[in-house]
């Protein structure tokens, strides 16, 4: 059986038309999509053409630019995922960060028992208390967002959550119930159900960090309603403002959208692990400081079997990939921080430190060849591609070039038997232009979308 695999790169006005044309000319089965079209669609008075923005009042200009700037960060990911079906028929989506290096074939997710049962898989984050996020979800956000799913939600929300019962609210409830069939008890029941699913997430009362979003797999047909909620969560300013103030990045938005749809989010049962350095005094291994951070996720495609390492990701990998060959001394500094790797355990664990008893020595050879090969690919690509397209106006930096191609290369390196490489241009020797997976699965003739995004974390 064969998957038809397509790739999509999302950005927010960060790539020029020349750069997009160059990339699409070199790569097959790749779509490059500018999300600013989706963002500006919410500003009807502006339209989709930024060139006309100057004719509008300064206040409108500032608001539009603020929106675009916001989505150039982590929110680019959920907006990219939630709008993909508007542009192409897609059955399954893999959303993957630029710093992920797989140790198993990522398409095993699609064949796994959890995915076939739930139609999605989320990975876990560490235990960490942060600004009372879960309490905020339970008390405020779930009632507000759930009520929004029903007609005339404002008055029902006032009635249920704020208990503002007066003659005006009473009359509005009566009118709403009569006109569209909405009953306040339906909303209240829906809120209770979603709060119940929240409480069913293991260790939910011990943490405000729940989900990790470096890799997400989603059955788009089964969860189209989830994608609609995720899209509205980001395109409607009121939905997202308080939510993003209470969490770190975008990572919680995916499972929250699943929860708001009335479905229980499924999390991979193995907690986030780390590669780090031993503190001899305390006999604990802690993740690297900033530039050397590498996290580990374990996974098994079959229930009740021993998991193995699924992928590495983190700033430590980004640091090594971005270094030129003239900075091998800095590479050695990063490697010196990666002494031990923690073994898998069920559910979450607190922070990024683990007891030495849970850890084993980390074999650099398990990942060093991949890092070295990716650096070589990056060097060859940047040296072979016209500079006017890559660096014009800072349009596509060397780092973003790596973002676009790293996933392709890591698949080839780690799984050469499953993928084949073709080139459209001999002058760019290592550009991956077509990738097909020949895997046994139940998804015959399915379409799989693999998504990238270009983000600006500064």
Number of helices: 18
User: Which structural class should the secondary elements be placed in?
Assistant: alpha+beta
**Unreliable residue stretches:** 386-404, 411-448, 452-458
Radius of gyration: 23 Å
User: How confident is the prediction overall: mean pLDDT?
Assistant: 75
Helix content: 40-55%
Number of domains: 2
Strand content: 15-25%
Major sheet = 8 strands, antiparallel
Silhouette: globular
The tally of beta strands, per DSSP, is: 14
Terminal-residue CA separation: 43 Å
Pfam families: Mannosyl_trans3
Family: Belongs to the MNN1/MNT family.
Keywords: Glycoprotein, Glycosyltransferase, Membrane, Signal-anchor, Transferase, Transmembrane, Transmembrane helix
InterPro entries: Alpha_mannosyltransferase (IPR022751)
Notes on the protein architecture:
- By secondary structure, the chain is α+β, with helices and mostly antiparallel strands.
- It folds into 2 domains: 4-133 and 202-269 and 368-453, no CATH class; 134-199.
- 40% of the residues lie in helices and 16% in strands.
- It contains 18 helices and 14 strands.
- A hairpin with an 8-residue loop joins strand 9 (294-299) and strand 10 (308-313).
- It is globular and about 60 Å long.
- The relative contact order is 0.19.
- Belongs to the MNN1/MNT family.
């Amino acid at each position: 059986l064969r998957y038809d695999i397509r790739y999509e790169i999302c950005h927010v006005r960060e790539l020029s038309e020349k750069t997009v044309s160059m990339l699409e000319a070199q790569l097959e089965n790749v779509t490059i999509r500018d999300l600013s079209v989706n963002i500006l669609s919410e500003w009807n008075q502006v339209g989709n053409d930024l060139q006309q923005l100057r004719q509008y009042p300064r206040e409108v200009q500032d608001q539009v630019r603020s929106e675009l700037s916001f989505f150039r960060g982590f929110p680019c990911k959920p907006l990219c995922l939630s709008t993909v079906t508007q542009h192409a028929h897609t059955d399954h989506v893999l959303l993957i960060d630029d710093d992920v290096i797989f140790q198993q074939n990522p398409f095993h997710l699609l064949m796994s028992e959890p995915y076939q049962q739930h139609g999605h898989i989320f990975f876990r984050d560490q235990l960490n208390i942060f600004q009372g996020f879960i309490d905020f979800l339970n008390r405020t956000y779930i009632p507000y967002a759930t009520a929004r799913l029903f007609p005339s939600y404002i008055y029902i929300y006032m009635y249920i959550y704020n208990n503002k019962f007066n003659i005006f609210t009473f009359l509005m409830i009566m009118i709403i119930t009569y006109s569209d069939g909405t009953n306040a008890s339906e909303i209240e029941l829906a809120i209770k159900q979603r709060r119940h699913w929240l409480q069913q997430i293991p260790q939910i009362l011990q943490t405000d960090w729940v989900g990790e979003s470096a890799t997400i797999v989603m059955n788009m047909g089964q969860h189209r309603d989830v994608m609609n909620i995720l899209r509205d969560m980001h395109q409607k300013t009121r939905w997202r403002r308080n939510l993003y103030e209470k969490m770190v990045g975008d990572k919680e938005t995916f499972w929250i959208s699943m929860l708001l749809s009335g479905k229980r989010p499924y999390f991979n049962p193995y907690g986030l692990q780390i590669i780090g350095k031993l503190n001899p005094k305390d006999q604990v291994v802690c993740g690297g400081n900033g530039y050397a951070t590498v996290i580990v996720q374990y996974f098994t495609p079959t229930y009740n079997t021993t998991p193995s390492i699924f992928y590495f990701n983190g700033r430590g990998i980004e640091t090594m990939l971005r270094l030129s060959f003239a900075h091998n001394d800095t590479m050695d500094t990063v490697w010196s921080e990666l002494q031990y790797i923690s073994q898998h355990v069920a559910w979450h664990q607190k922070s990024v430190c683990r007891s030495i008893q849970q850890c084993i020595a980390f074999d650099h050879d398990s990942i060093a060849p991949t890092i070295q090969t990716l650096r070589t690919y990056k060097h060859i690509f940047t040296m072979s591609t016209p500079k006017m397209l890559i660096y014009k106006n800072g349009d596509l930096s060397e780092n973003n070039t790596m973002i676009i191609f790293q996933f392709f290369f890591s698949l080839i390196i780690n799984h050469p038997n499953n993928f084949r490489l073709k080139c459209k241009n001999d002058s760019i020797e290592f550009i991956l232009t077509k990738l097909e997976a020949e895997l046994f699965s139940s998804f015959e003739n399915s379409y799989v979308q693999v998504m990238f995004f270009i983000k600006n974390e500064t």
